[in-house]
Design brief:
The complex is a heterodimer of chains A (250) and B (550). With 250 residues, chain A is of the alpha+beta class. Helices cover 38% and strands 15% of the residues of chain A. By secondary structure, chain B is mainly beta. In chain B, the strands form ten sheets. In chain B, strands 1-32-33-34-35 form a five-stranded mixed beta sheet, with no helix packed on it. Chain B has a four-stranded antiparallel beta sheet with strand order 2-38-37-36, with no helix packed on it. Chain B is globular. The chains are: A alpha+beta (250), B mainly beta (550).
Chain lengths: 250, 550
């Protein structure tokens, strides 16, 4: 632990040149790239390869941000870490994201049981009425089949307790009222100056011309807080289940 | 506490409501096999590669007619994020258009505006290799599931609502040079797909998979193994790597439960000395029992081919009057320059003739075997052979209109190749670029008519005589669509999308799309408006009548 803190300290000292240019949007970009390109092997928390915990600044060989950027771009010959075609800017943003995660806790507080969590997900939590896992459940909310690859346990716990704190772009809800008075709500898929596309509560892909709408706009996510529904152990069980969802199981 | 009670009370109601509406919606959206078979009953949709399992690429929609087609106007363009040729024909299901961004990204978009609902990116394995472009010709749909073959030889199933990948199965090994570029074929509860790769040392095959689970149900090898009839048409061990790939859409006839596929060239392509014999079932059409994959009949178009004359055209089934009697036939304009009418129940050869200048064959024997012209083979000095190695036509889908009774084909005329023993065929004439492959961008065209030109022709299927011709300067890799408005749509390498009179070929309308047309047109309607789409360059274009036009 002491050594880890020391490494983090060294890294932080070594990185001011990039730090002064980081913005929240850089970090969000870095997070997106991390989820798409790195989380498959390193896991959403960055700690699934023994001896490496990217989210806490624990690396095998890297000492500086420049080292990290070089490794991201060129890979590590002789190891499974492959080269990527990331630009300098993209790689810098991934590093900025990793440093930002070191400042937050990376695990849920209580140890959970994934099997119990699955039962809670499908039963008491009624999560499948909006979410889909392995082809079962509603398509209205974001599909959770790979959520354990994409989100850290701390983020999943936060989404269960305070879902409004962070809604990923692909999980935003929208409402339109057509000129003939029909109201349609659903998860937003795309929006432009003239049109809106969403998947509605009937799981239909819908497209609207704004010229035919009386009203349109974002609405809060229908995701409820489970603060009072799940006790701490149940919450940990559900988080464990979600973390275990790494992709399609046939 | 109050909050908790309130939420607990509300949650089941919401859940029930969502469950009820979800079930209803899902029922509405199911594309059953019966809907695919009878797609003519819902002309606003386009449910398979060429519209119906008969592959007639005929739209029963009537809003666009010969009288008003001049008023077509661009409605939207969708630009693919791809530098590959755009060969896919979209599907349209109840206002949602699905297509493939080459090589293997699947896109769902609003068919009225071209705006995207979702895009699913599929990264093929690095070892994926194709002979002629990292392309895809389209999807299939059954229920709520889309199916795509990939250039790393997998079959992928996706949720049509969300694009989520439900399963993927390796059909053959990409490391062993297999790939898939064709649109899958749905038969009942099965997805049928074949493998490309016939220009490499591979052995062609078609396999059927359970549409729900991806479990393999049967597999047919297009080259018979030892002990099977036809294996003796390959000398030595040449059967093991003899090609005969299946890389274009198949057809299905529910009356006989037969599914039909064209097969590709024998391999090595241009040198038959290591594979003496007829090389069955290369360059053939094979008729398989759709339940078992057993071969029911075959017809070989080009026995012992040494000019890469893949018979991988789209089989087109039609019921026509043939010599005074109704006949269930298969119409086939082949890459080898010959056009055929076959009995699709028995495989009997009914009629055949050259539809372009052909010098390697001169007629047929009583059983329909082409009579080779002596000397028209690859030689050390080189032999000029017609048509070109890329053919008279190639993979581009043809059309048949039940209204006009004509068979519409876009093809090359006057094309030729210099066939050299043991070598890739050379171009003939002073312009080495003649009749080259399709590309994305426009190119300056410098050939004369003797070196090849492109045509769309309307053929009488009972005589195989052309009734009309629309002539282009450059050749064409475009498919053809005919409609109940008696309009034929096609295009070519020059980048024009053209509308022709289905009865006489007169040019009624054209649009310059700025890129080569390497796909087949299709038509659908949403909210009472008929659209016609065509891919050109790396974009998909949708046209409809101007708002005030009738």
């Amino acid at each position: 632990m002491t050594r880890a803190l020391f490494i983090i300290g060294v890294l932080c000292l070594a990185l001011p040149a990039y730090a002064q240019h980081e913005t929240a949007s850089d970090i969000e970009d870095g997070s997106r790239v991390f989820r798409q390109s790195c989380a498959n092997c390193h896991g959403p928390d960055g700690n699934e390869i023994p001896g490496i915990d990217l989210g806490r600044g624990i690396f095998k060989t890297a000492k500086t941000d420049d080292d990290l950027i070089r490794i991201i771009q060129k890979g590590l010959p002789g190891t499974p870490m492959p080269p990527t075609n990331m630009s300098d800017e993209q790689a810098k943003r991934v590093v900025a994201y990793l440093r930002s995660t070191a400042a937050t806790k990376t695990t849920a507080t209580t140890v959970g049981d994934a099997a119990r969590g699955k039962a809670l997900f499908e039963g008491k939590g009624k999560c499948a009425s909006c979410h889909r896992v392995n082809g079962v459940g509603s398509r209205l909310g974001p599909d959770l089949t790979r959520i354990g690859q994409l989100r850290r346990s701390v983020e999943l716990e936060r989404s269960l307790l305070d879902p409004a704190v962070e809604v990923l772009p692909a999980g935003r809800f929208y409402r339109v009222v057509t000129k003939d008075g029909a109201t349609v709500t659903g998860r937003l898929l795309n929006i432009d100056t003239f049109t809106v596309q969403m998947i509605d509560t009937k799981e239909q892909l819908r497209s609207f011309s704004k010229a035919n709408l009386k009203e349109s706009g974002f609405i809060p996510s229908p995701m409820p807080s489970y603060k009072g529904t799940f006790n701490p152990q149940e919450l940990a069980d559900v988080v464990s289940y979600l973390v275990s969802l790494k992709g399609r199981v046939n | 506490m109050t909050q908790r009670k309130g939420r607990l009370k509300a949650a089941p109601t919401v859940a029930i409501l969502i469950a009820v509406v979800a079930a209803a919606a899902s029922l509405n959206a199911q594309v059953t096999f019966d809907r695919i078979l009878r797609a003519d009953r819902e002309p606003h949709n386009w449910l398979s590669y060429s519209g119906t399992p008969f592959n007639q690429r005929y739209s029963p929609l009537t809003q666009i007619t010969t009288a008003n087609v001049k008023n077509l106007e661009l409605q939207w363009v969708w630009q693919a994020r791809s530098l590959e040729k755009f060969e896919a024909t979209p599907l349209v299901v109840d206002g949602v258009l699905y297509t493939v961004q080459a090589p293997n990204d699947v896109v769902a978009m609003d068919a009225e505006t071209g705006r995207p609902f979702w895009t699913t990116t599929y990264a093929p394995a690095p070892e994926a290799r194709t002979c002629c472009g990292r392309v895809n010709r389209g999807l299939a749909i059954l229920g709520d599931t889309l199916y795509m073959g990939t250039i790393d030889a997998h079959l992928v199933a996706l949720d049509a609502k969300t694009g989520e990948i439900l399963w993927k199965k390796e059909v053959a090994s990409a490391k062993e040079r297999y790939s898939i570029t064709m649109s899958p074929v749905i038969v009942k509860d099965k997805v049928l797909i074949g493998t490309a790769g016939g220009d490499m040392p591979t052995r062609g095959q078609v396999a059927a998979f359970d549409a729900k689970t991806g479990k393999e149900l049967w597999r047919f090898f297009t080259i018979p193994g030892p002990g099977e009839p036809g294996n003796d048409t390959w000398s030595g061990d040449s059967w093991k790597t003899g090609g005969a790939a299946v890389w274009n859409a198949g057809a299905y006839d529910p009356e006989t439960n037969l599914v039909f596929f064209g097969t590709g060239n024998p391999q090595p392509d241009w040198d038959g000395r290591s594979r003496l014999g007829d090389n069955l079932y290369s360059d053939s059409v094979i008729a398989l029992d759709a339940d078992t994959g057993k071969l029911k009949w075959y017809y070989q178009f080009t026995p012992h081919d040494e000019l890469d004359y893949d018979a991988t055209q789209v089989p087109l089934l039609a019921d026509i009057q043939f010599r005074g009697k109704p006949r269930k036939v298969m119409l086939w304009a082949n890459r080898n320059g010959l056009m055929y009418v076959l009995d699709r129940v028995t495989g009997e050869f009914l009629h055949g003739k050259a539809y372009v200048k052909v010098n390697w064959a001169d007629g047929f024997d009583a059983k329909g075997r082409p009579q080779r012209v002596p000397g028209m083979v690859p030689t050390k000095a080189g032999t000029v052979i017609r048509p070109h190695v890329h053919g008279a036509t190639n993979w581009q889908p043809p059309s048949f209109s039940p209204r006009t009774g004509l068979f519409y084909v876009a093809h090359f005329e006057n094309s030729s190749t210099v066939a050299v023993e043991g070598e890739f065929p050379r171009a003939n004439g002073i312009n080495p670029r003649q009749t080259t492959m399709g590309q994305i961008n426009l190119q300056n065209f410098l050939n004369n008519e003797d070196e090849a030109y492109g045509v769309v022709r309307g053929y009488d299927p009972s005589t195989l005589e052309p009734k009309w011709e629309y002539k282009m300067a450059d050749i064409t890799w475009a498919g053809v669509l005919s409609t109940a408005g008696d309009v034929v749509f096609s295009g070519g390498k020059e980048g024009y999308f053209v509308a022709l009179d289905a009865r006489n070929g007169a040019l009624l309308w054209k649009a310059a799309l700025g890129g080569q047309v390497n796909a087949g047109p299709m038509s659908y309607s949403v909210n009472g408006k008929q659209y016609v789409t065509i891919a050109a360059g790396n974009s998909l274009f949708a046209f409809a009548l101007r708002g005030d036009a009738k």
